[in-house]
Amino acid sequence: MTPLLDAPDPRAVMAAFGLPGAPTAYAEVDGAWSNRVFRLHTAHGSYAVKELRNPWGEPRWAQWLDESWQLELAAVTAGVTMPQPVPAPDGACFVDVDRGDGSGAVPVRVHHWVDGVRPSVADVGTELAVWTGLTLATVHALRMKPRDAMLFPVPTTASVQAWPDLCAKASAANAAWSEQLAATLEAVARAADLLVPTVDHATVMSHGDLTLKNLLITSSGPVLCDWDVAMPRVPAWDLAEVAVSIAAWHDREAARIVRSSYADAGGELVPPTPRDLGPTLMVRLDFISLLVHRALALRPTSPAERAAADAKLPDLLAELPRQVAVAESLDAWLG
After folding, report:
1. How far apart are CA 80 and CA 24, in angstroms?
2. CA–CA gap between residue 47 and residue 49 (Å, rounded)
3. pLDDT tens across 229-279, in order?
4. What CATH number was assigned to the domain covering residues 10-112?
5. How far apart are CA 65 and CA 263, in angstroms?
6. What are the residue boundaries of the structural domains of the chain, listed by start?
7. Coil, strand or helix at 181
């Protein structure tokens, strides 16, 4: 087995989580944006090893992870299909583990590996839409409240305010997508008009990112991955976000099936309004802003992260005006 020197040491991972045997293969998995993920093979099984990196710089990130962990464990018990988590011996969700090159320790968590494929937009049909509505209703029915609501970021218009400056920096750098970025200024301003304050008492803990990129289709059905950013959500707003995300902001029928399945599973339906998607759009703008910062090297970033951000931005920017338009007509689009 060729060691990955800058990765968490696989033997240290196994020791920290009490996994039996010895590592037989270890490789980094492509496609992770916020963290690094590795597949660890042993004589006794395969595991997903996640190196947690806190790209947003949240100061109380470890406490946020613990709140997410409590929801993840409750969701497992409630029957939500997901990769089975491996707790640390003390019951925590992560352990600091040394890197293979001895350069320091990094926080790591572990799940049992699940063989599956990430669905594309073309894979979204009635079965997946029904499963999504049922899964979201199951999570909301837990009625979990955060022990400390102040841990979680609140959507703001900060990225909107910084958008003209980002456009100027992209233009000065001759970024291939700089004109696309500038062309979104009007849509970004309209998106900001949809943001309203969250009502604390109306929220419940939810997955926080139930989208196609966090699903795997397995031989026994879909599973929901990546519970690390669970957060308090207003159920109606969460449902609107999940419905349009699973529908890729295009397939109105799939979005309606998600809502119908949610109601059939006991979730409460309220008439959708454009402002349901205000928080979603602000988080999307924050993500695009992060990628712009990576692509222009405005923050510390690796060459691979810079190239990936540069490649992803054109598609995200092309879709943004349509997504704002869908949000503005959400009552008709989902009604």
Report:
1. 31
2. 6
3. 999 999 999 999 999 999 999 999 999 999 999 999 999 999 999 999 999
4. 3.30.200.20
5. 30
6. 10-112, 121-334
7. helix
Biggest CA pair distance of the chain: 57
Tell me: the pLDDT tens digits for 144-186?
Answer: 999 898 899 889 999 999 999 999 999 999 999 999 999 999 9
Tally of helices (H runs) and strands (E runs) in the chain? 11, 10
| The CATH homologous superfamily of the domain defined by 121-334 | Aminoglycoside phosphotransferase (APH), C-terminal lobe (3.90.1200.10)
The one-letter amino acid at 310: D
Contact call for residues 204 and 233 (beta carbons, < 8 A): yes
Q: What pTM was estimated for this model as a whole?
A: 0.92
At 224 the three-state DSSP class reads: strand
Cα distance between residue 291 and residue 57, in whole Å: 15
- List of residues 6+ apart from 158 with CB closer than 8 A: 286
CB 277 within 8 A of CB 233: no
Q: How far is CA 12 from CA 5, 17, 42, in A?
A: 13, 9, 13
Confidence (pLDDT) at 5? 73
Q: Are strands 105-112 and 85-86 parallel, antiparallel or unpaired?
A: antiparallel
Q: Is 104 left (phi over 0), alpha (psi -120 to 50) or beta?
A: left
Helix (H) or strand (E) holding 308: helix 303-328
